[in-house]
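Narrative of accomplishments. A recurring question from our advisory board has been how the design workflow behaves on a single, concrete structure rather than in aggregate. To address it, we present the structure tokens for one chain from the evaluation set, followed by the sequence designed for it. No filtering or post-editing was applied between the two.
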């Protein structure tokens, strides 16, 4: 495994498992168990995914020691007025007595009250790292300027067509680790994996286009959490730690950026309106 050192000094795996839309209880439990067998140690979930209890069952069944795991959840913005209690409930559902990382899921609603709750959980040692998700640089810098604990992580959509270089620059400036989501664009843009430049690189390194994509993002210092519930894909997505893209090939892939996130646009007022109905 490759790791990134967070601003707390804690080492976080750079590759883990995403679980959004993994909502079938048995399928989710089995996918997590299979991932742990393959070697995944970081599991990403969220209160809104409705699967913390299924993941908890897998964590109970695995023989991987708790201290080797890195469990991440996110507080839904409807819980921002009661974030502390909601995290305690998440811990219960996951069957753990501490969490490795808890994020504010979106910068909507009473984010400041929620952040103070996370700071309290952090000081009490119940949560080892606290962070945010879907924060654009302006919101991130604002949070840092007017609070005590600097987020350890900001989880934002990051993939070949939305590489988020401007966001990355601001995160780097304040020591906030960049965690990406939707590395495969949630399956909404599979044509990207037929891009001739990408398929040529895949052939060159003896890997698939998706493996080259994950490798590119990991080498760009973006933590990866591809989601799958299929054993073969879990293996494919994990098998990206045994090769290195050359500087030239990294530059070539950087050229595919269109700076166009598909999902994570919290600065869009229409998105904020829609989110109020989520
Ligand atoms: N913070 C946020 O707001 C936020 C938002 C979205 C996601 N996330 C997190 O980030 C994780 C990853 O993002 P995502 O799940 O939205 O999208 P993603 O990882 O880009 O794509 C997942 C889709 O790709 C398919 N897939 C996975 N591996 C594949 C492979 N090797 N070949 C072909 N298809 C493959 C999966 O299908 P199968 O499962 O059927 O294999 C699934 O349909 C989430 O699961 C979640 O934990 C966070």
């Amino acid at each position: 495994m490759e790791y990134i050192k967070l601003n707390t000094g804690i080492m976080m795996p750079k590759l883990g498992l995403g679980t959004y839309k993994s909502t079938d209880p048995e399928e989710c439990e089995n996918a997590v168990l299979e991932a742990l067998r393959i070697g995944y140690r970081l599991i990403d979930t969220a209160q809104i995914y409705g699967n913390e209890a299924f993941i908890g069952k897998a964590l109970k069944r695995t023989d991987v020691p708790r201290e080797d795991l890195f469990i991440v959840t996110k507080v839904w913005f409807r819980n921002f007025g009661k974030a502390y209690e909601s995290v305690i409930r998440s811990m219960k559902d996951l069957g753990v007595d501490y969490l490795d990382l808890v994020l504010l899921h979106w910068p909507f609603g009473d984010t400041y009250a929620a952040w103070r709750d996370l700071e309290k959980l952090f000081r009490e040692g119940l949560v080892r790292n606290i962070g945010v998700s879907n924060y654009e640089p302006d919101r991130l810098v604002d949070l840092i300027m007017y609070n005590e604990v600097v987020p350890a992580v900001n989880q934002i959509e990051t993939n070949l067509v939305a590489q988020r270089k401007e966001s990355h620059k601001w995160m780097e400036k304040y020591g906030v680790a960049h965690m990406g989501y939707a590395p495969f664009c949630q399956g909404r843009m599979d044509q990207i994996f037929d891009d001739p430049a990408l398929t040529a690189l895949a052939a060159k390194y003896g890997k698939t286009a998706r493996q080259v994509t994950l490798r590119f993002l990991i080498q760009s210092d973006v933590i990866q959490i591809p989601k799958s519930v299929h054993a073969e894909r879990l293996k494919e997505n994990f098998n990206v730690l045994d090769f290195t893209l050359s500087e030239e090939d990294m530059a070539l892939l950087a050229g595919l950026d269109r700076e166009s996130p598909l999902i994570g646009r919290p600065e869009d007022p229409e998105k904020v309106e829609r989110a109020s109905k989520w």
